[in-house]
Amino acid sequence: MNDKTIISHPGRARWTGAVVVLMALVGAACGTNNNSTKTASNPSAKTSVQCASGTISGAGSTFVQTIMQQWIKDYAAACPGATVNYQGVGSGAGIQQFTAGTVDFAGSDVAMKPEEETAAQAKQGAVLHIPWSSGGIAVEYNVKNVSDLKLTPETLAGIFAGKIVKWDDPAIKADNSGAALPSEGIQVIHRSDGSGTTAAFTSYLTATAGSIWKAGAAKDVPWPTGQGAKGSDGVTAAVKQTEGGIGYAELSFAKSTSLGVARIKNPAGSWVVPDGSSVAAALTSATVPPNLKIQINYTPPDPTAYPISTTTFVLVAQKPADPVKAKLLKAFVLYALGPGQQAADGLFYAPLPSSLVSQAKTVAESIQG
After folding, report:
1. Residue 55: exposure state from Cβ atoms within 10 A (0-12, 13-18, ≥19)
2. Considering all CA atoms of the chain, what is the largest pairwise distance in Å, rounded to the nearest integer?
3. Which whole number is the average pLDDT over 134-151?
4. How confident is the model at residue 112, as a pLDDT?
5. Which of these, 32, 9, 2, lies nearest to 19 by C-alpha position?
6. CA-to-CA distance for 268 and 284, rounded, in angstroms?
7. 164-170: long-range contacts, CB 8 A cutoff, minimum separation 24
């Protein structure tokens, strides 16, 4: 295998449906999400699913929570003897719980830091990073009478750095020629918990506007301005309740609450919103090393690419202590990488590129009982 490969994926034309995240704890016995305007179709009805019995629990990323809820429901329908629980507590807390051995797997939107992986290995043995979903981080906003907000990286960085504090600031006006921008304060909402979504978002700001954004790139940063909220659902709820609010979350959260989603100017000069096609285009320039700790290119050259795109990982021990759980872990991860990918479009995620799915399945097959 080469030291690294580049993801390739054909663009996908459109997205359908929407979903509301109802809860942090998602069990296999959960019912239909009644607040959803539409849910993804059940892929297990048409595709053979590898079943295993038992119970496993996971915690972590809220970015992946919406599609995880669908996977759990569909897998339980196909495999009644299996129970999968997942708690969306943020990537940082998920890694901590996995390291402590209180959950069987973790969801994270970024790879573990070396010191985090060393600590996890001391408890769990070898740890696998398996990418299993991808999507766009939407810049969601709530500004009266503004329905088509455009932001350059520099303007976006200025807002979150606290340097641009009014919606009618000259920089925002320059990005939105002719728009009727109100003379009201900008209310920045950011994550208060350790978040892989924050790590990806701040990595984008660092890569594209490092002269303006000085707070660094990490799961938790010293925010120069704004107020914190827990989880993607918490950020979205706060923006929804706040006139003049702006925040960031995986696209499904903004869509499910009908918040505005800003168009972001990419390196080619195109104003792009996150959707299946634009996320797929962005991922074509991501670097995939043999350990699958994907390195996102936040300045993708494709003119159709949405630059604030990311993959998200499931973190699992290569050899879990409980062989029954190991069998179910492998089966569920393989389900997510197989039939589960069909749920992505309807839930505002992007299916993983086929080349990456193949590599991820190979790694998942190495989980030992």
Report:
1. middle
2. 63
3. 97
4. 96
5. 32
6. 15
7. 165/225, 167/143, 167/244
Domains of the chain: 5-135+312-364 (3.40.190.10), 137-288 (3.40.190.10)
Distance CA 284, CA 296 (A): 9
- Between CA 365 and CA 352 the distance in angstroms is 18
Main-chain dihedrals φ then ψ at residue 227, nearest 5 degrees: -125, 150
Per residue in 156-172, pLDDT (tens digit) is 999 999 999 999 999 99
- pTM, two decimal places: 0.86
Tens-digit pLDDT profile for residues 274-320: 999 999 999 999 999 999 999 999 999 999 999 999 999 999 999 99
**Which of these, 362, 143, 314, lies nearest to 240 by C-alpha position?**
143
322-327: Cβ within 8 A, 24+ apart: 323/369, 324/52, 324/53, 324/54, 324/369, 325/54, 325/55, 325/56, 325/104, 326/367, 326/368, 326/369, 327/52, 327/54, 327/369
Judged by DSSP in three states, 317 sits in strand
Token reading at 55: 């119970």
3-class state of residue 173 by DSSP: helix
Whole-number pLDDT of residue 150: 98
